[in-house]
Amino acid sequence: MIKKFKDFLAGIFLVFKNKKHIKLGIYGPPNAGKTRLANRICQDWLGEDMGAVSPIPHETREIQQKEKVTVNSNGKKLSFNLIDTPGIATRIDYEEFIKKGMNKKEAQTRAKEATKGVIEAIKWLDNMDAVLVVLDSTRNPYDQVNITIIGNLAARNIPVMILGNKIDLKKANLKKIESAFPQYKVVGVSAEYGDNVEQFYKELFKLVK
Amino acid sequence: MPLTMQYVPFEELSDLDSERKIQKLIRIVKQNKLVLMEGTLTAQEEADLIEETMATIDSKFKGVEITSFNPIEKNSKQIQDKLRRMFMEMIWGRRRGLTIIGPANIVREIRKDPNRIQLFLSNRGR
């Protein structure tokens, strides 16, 4: 009886503990704007950036975490640990980095670190309580990497919101993302210019109930 | 040099566990062949394939390009489609559909729309 009561208390404690430390992950392919989004959120609510951004893919090669980010929207508060992950890819070619202006040694180092980053990002899937999947809305959403990420989150019953980033660009096509993933909420944003982020914050409360 | 496509029937992989299945697929791709696999991988197997690919990348092997096509679309909202898919998988396994995996030094891009798959080949490595 006493043991059952202790287990009950431990269960309650665990629920509150988990609520306090919700891990909100940011996933997606390289150069979709994951770190730009993380920076947008951190600038809006902490007044500081989270990480460096670059037009060269795989700028984020390690998991980055900001603890206790608190978002306010419509008088409600939501606290979470924000986790920015390296872009998930099926190929990494150091020669692509050389084409972007890096020397051979830098490019090879970046490629090596990027492969480790992808593995780390996949391993961290199990730690997430909710995930924002960031897709470049100017690109084809039917890429297998997107399907693999979302399929793995669904298999783990992790709540997902898809963000179609770069809606400020002419080629952006949110409808295509919506038809590729009809069972998910898709919100269009421009992490760089802040377009529609208010809507995103509102939807975040629905995602992390 | 011609591009070799290797057909991998469902039976060839169905008795293997996920790890051996993925190792076999990567072994074929590393021979610069395009894999045409009958059926599809699970989401976990796809993630494992990416992890294994990343662990194998070196100056010669740049990774893979992969796509899969399933006639009963996984993302369908229709409950009857989901039930039909679950029922078929229960009886026949993940036999339905097709998975294409190619070496990244030969296949530059696989572009998939819901009903069409396009392979863009690279001149490098051929």
How is this structure best described in words?
The complex is a heterodimer of chains A (209) and B (126). Chain A has 7 helices and 6 strands; from the N terminus they run αβαββααβαβαβα. In chain A, 42% of the residues are buried. About 3% of the residues of chain A have low confidence. The longest helix of chain A is centred in the middle third of the chain and has 20 residues. Chain A has 209 residues and is an alpha/beta fold. A 6-stranded mixed sheet of chain A has the order 2-3-1-4-5-6, sandwiched between helices. Chain A has one domain: P-loop containing nucleotide triphosphate hydrolases (Rossmann fold), CATH 3.40.50. The two termini of chain A are 32 Å apart. Chain B is of the alpha+beta class and 126 residues long. Chain B has one domain. A 4-stranded mixed sheet of chain B has the order 1-2-4-3. A two-stranded antiparallel sheet of chain B has the order 5-6. In chain B, a hairpin with a 2-residue loop joins strand 5 and strand 6. In chain B, helix 2 crosses helix 3. The termini of chain B are close together. The model of chain B has no long low-confidence stretch (mean pLDDT 87). The chains are: A alpha/beta (209), B alpha+beta (126). At the A-B interface, helix 4 and helix 5 of A face helix 3, strand 3 and strand 5 of B.
